[in-house]
Design brief:
Helices cover about 40% and strands about 30% of the residues. Helix 1 runs parallel beside helix 7 and helix 11 crosses helix 12. InterPro entries: CBASS_pafABC_assoc_protein, WCX_dom, WYL_dom.
């Protein structure tokens, strides 16, 4: 099966980003020949004329975006060749001051955006410049492409499916029953909500839009069709779909057995507590609207907390502890 093609808009954005990185990376003006070698998309141009037309369009677009791309003579004694660079002083943001509440919001956001890094073609562009002996300036390219880090193994394939509008197939553990079913989906969007990642899309088996929590996907996600084989509704809002599903989910009462002297956070949130139900154990009732999220928390208590009910919660905790045991072997 042929690999999925990158959508035109995504390919153009990637090319412009690589050009910005290339021109920020150098301390000296770069001739067009070096730029063509460094930016992967330029290297695939069919002819010199095709490259020149593409480069001229990209220069104009960067300037329209407010990026200070400047043209300079490479050698002041000879004006037969021009070079290009981005003026870092004009490109940099002025010093920004934040109020305490704004700093708090940024701190929360940083939990989602784990680090800034360069990936894929951008990293290859930098390697090519380094190999060509171009003097580098690493500090100027920090933070150009944030990379999202998640704990869900299914995230990378789901994200690619959304970007390329490519149908997928995966096994999914249903909320409430814990039953495992195979789903066929046309992905529409992906978003984080309350610390969890969700995939929205059209379930072709049920012929209706659905929301899937990536943490409930079991095993790898498989391709089930070609890229760009369907259209995403123009008015689709992933977060609105996720919120709507969450509001429809009924809350349940989780019954937990907690070792004496442990689980203080659980005890504080409990609606009811029964002490001494067994030797060294108490029992608490806890309101729960998301069994998978509560299972993550309970697994962290290991042998100090036992999930008694509902059965879905108990099975979810057992799956996590079993997985941790197998991973440690």
């Amino acid at each position: 099966m042929a690999p999925a093609r990158t959508p035109v808009s995504a390919a153009k954005t990637e090319r412009l980003l690589n050009l910005v990185i290339c021109l920020l990376y150098t301390r000296r003006p770069l001739p067009k020949s070096k730029i063509r070698e460094a930016v992967p998309q330029y290297g695939s141009a069919l002819s010199e004329d095709a490259f020149n037309r593409m480069f001229e369009r990209d220069k104009d677009e960067l300037r329209e975006l407010g990026i200070p791309l400047v043209t300079e003579d490479i050698d002041p004694l000879f004006d037969d060749e021009e070079g290009y660079r981005i003026d870092r002083r004009e490109y940099a943001l002025p010093e920004v001051a934040f109020e305490p509440d704004e700093i708090a919001v940024l701190g929360l956001a940083s939990r989602t955006w784990a680090q800034a890094s360069l990936a894929g073609p951008a990293a290859r562009a930098l390697r090519k410049l380094e190999a060509a002996g171009v003097e580098r300036d690493d500090s100027s390219v920090i933070g150009l492409e944030p990379r999202v880090r998640t704990a869900e193994p299914a995230f990378a394939r789901a994200k690619d499916a959304v970007l390329h509008r490519r149908p997928i197939r995966f096994d999914y553990r249903r909320s409430g029953t814990g039953a495992l079913t195979t789903r066929h989906v046309q992905p529409w969007g992906i978003a984080a909500w309350h610390g969890r990642w969700y995939l929205t899309g059209y379930d072709t088996d049920r012929e209706a839009p659905r929301v899937f929590r990536l943490g409930r996907v079991e095993g790898p996600i498989a391709w089930a069709g070609r890229a760009a084989s369907y259209a995403v509704p123009a008015d689709h809002d992933p977060l609105a779909s996720i919120r709507a599903q969450a509001s429809e989910r009924p809350a349940v009462t989780a019954t937990l057995r907690v070792r004496a002297g442990a689980g203080h956070s659980l005890r504080r949130r409990a609606g009811a507590t029964r002490t001494g139900v067994a030797d060294g154990w108490d029992e608490v009732d806890l309101p729960c609207s998301d069994t998978e999220r509560l299972a993550d928390e309970l697994a962290g208590y290991a042998a100090d907390v036992e999930a008694v009910a509902p059965a879905e919660l108990r099975e979810a905790v057992i799956r996590r502890l079993t997985g941790a045991l197998e991973a440690s072997r």
